[in-house]
């Protein structure tokens, strides 16, 4: 079964490009041209940007894409990210209320969620934090990627110190709880324009500082696939995910590939926003590839023959990996 894979559309934010029905139609025409038997759309998180817009605005912006995917007969699988993490919180609260109604009031940590969701009559399967599938005897793991660095490392270190002071062992649920605390705080501030502006300023300033630090002390960009490869391997080990031949994610808005010898192929699907930077052109084991356009609009097409990283409007794929 062939799959269309896209990430980081950020519906609701000014940077989103797929809110335009014409761009959606162009994407679907390319999918039909390059993969006529596509049956599945994998949305790798940050589809809604609940950090920058009210939920109703974000959902409204997504409807042209959702409607067109439904019209094409594609099954929609939505792996939740950090900017749309509130969907996970809602699911946890819904399950708690169901348990409470039965009298089951004991705390429950669910490491993986899978449920059905409907937006404006359009059904989709929701997953968090991962989706796994086999294609051409290769094991593919799909996730958003926000667990790999950034706030994940900061919150985990903070929780470890707090647990150490109390003499308690850190639990699997601790990281998710700390991330939820941070993400929900940002979600609640989306209706306050001044807070959104302040958060954007802090985010850009921290990004500049990070790039400056890496330029001084390292040749490796922290948000490139190569820069995150060790974190990817750690993510697979920590969650006991077993064999993974290809790790596919988004989050950084930087499309790319990287693979070490005897390691999984790591692929970043890029984004559909107007904010991107960086350029590299190699695509063999031990090296990386990055697209470098101001409006990248990159996506992946996967079938039993191969995995293609494409840019909207370009005839040739940016990267093609044969699987057979």
Write a structural description.
The protein has 324 residues and is an alpha/beta fold. The chain has one domain: Metallo-dependent phosphatases (Purple Acid Phosphatase, chain A, domain 2). 36% of the residues lie in helices and 23% in strands. It has helices at 21-34, 55-71, 86-102, 151-166, 172-188, 193-217, 229-238; strands spanning 2-6, 38-43, 75-79, 113-119, 122-128, 130-135, 138-143, 246-249, 256-258, 265-268, 280-281, 288-290, 298-302, 306-311, 319-322. Strand 1 (2-6), helix 1 (21-34) and strand 2 (38-43) form a beta-alpha-beta unit. The protein is globular, with a radius of gyration of 19 Å. The model is unreliable at 276-295 (pLDDT under 50).
């Amino acid at each position: 079964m062939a799959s269309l894979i896209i990430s980081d559309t950020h519906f609701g934010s000014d940077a989103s490009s797929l809110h335009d029905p014409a761009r959606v139609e162009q994407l679907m025409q390319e999918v039909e041209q390059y993969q006529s038997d596509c049956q599945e759309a994998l949305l790798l998180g940050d589809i809604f940007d609940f950090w920058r817009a009210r939920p109703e605005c974000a959902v409204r912006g997504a409807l042209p894409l959702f409607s067109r995917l439904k019209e094409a007969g594609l099954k929609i699988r939505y792996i939740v990210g950090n900017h749309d993490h509130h969907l996970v919180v809602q699911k946890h609260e819904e399950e708690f209320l169901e348990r409470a109604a039965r009298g089951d009031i004991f705390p429950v940590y669910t490491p993986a969620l899978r449920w059905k969701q409907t937006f404006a009559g359009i059904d989709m399967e929701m997953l968090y934090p991962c989706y796994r599938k086999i294609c051409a005897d290769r094991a593919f793991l799909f996730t958003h990627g926000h667990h790999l660095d950034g706030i994940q490392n900061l919150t985990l270190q903070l929780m470890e110190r707090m647990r150490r002071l109390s003499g308690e062992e850190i639990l699997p649920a601790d990281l998710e709880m700390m991330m939820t605390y941070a993400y929900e705080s940002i979600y609640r501030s989306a209706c306050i324009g001044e807070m959104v502006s302040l958060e954007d300023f802090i985010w850009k300033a921290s990004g500049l500082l990070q790039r400056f630090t890496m330029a001084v002390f390292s040749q490796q960009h922290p948000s490139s696939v190569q820069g995150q490869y060790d974190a990817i391997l750690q993510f697979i080990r920590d969650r006991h995910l077993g064999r993974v031949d290809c790790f596919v994610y988004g989050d950084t808005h930087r499309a790319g590939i990287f693979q070490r010898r005897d390691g999984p192929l790591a692929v970043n699907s890029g984004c559909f926003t107007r904010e991107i930077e960086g350029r590299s052109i190699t695509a063999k084991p031990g090296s990386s590839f990055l697209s470098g356009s101001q409006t990248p609009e990159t996506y992946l097409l996967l079938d039993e023959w191969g995995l293609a990283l494409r840019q909207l409007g370009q005839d040739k794929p940016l990267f093609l990996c044969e699987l057979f």
